[in-house]
Amino acid sequence: MTLQLLDVIYNRSSCRDFLDKPVDDWAIENLLEALRRAPSAGNIQPWHFFVILNQEIKERLAKAAYGQNFIAKAPIVFVVCANPIMSSLGYGKRGRSLYCIQDTAAATENLLIAAEAMGLAGCWVGAFNEEEAAKALNLSHYLRPVAIVPIGYPKKKRGPTHKKPMDEIVTIIK
Question: pTM value?
Answer without folding.
Answer: 0.94
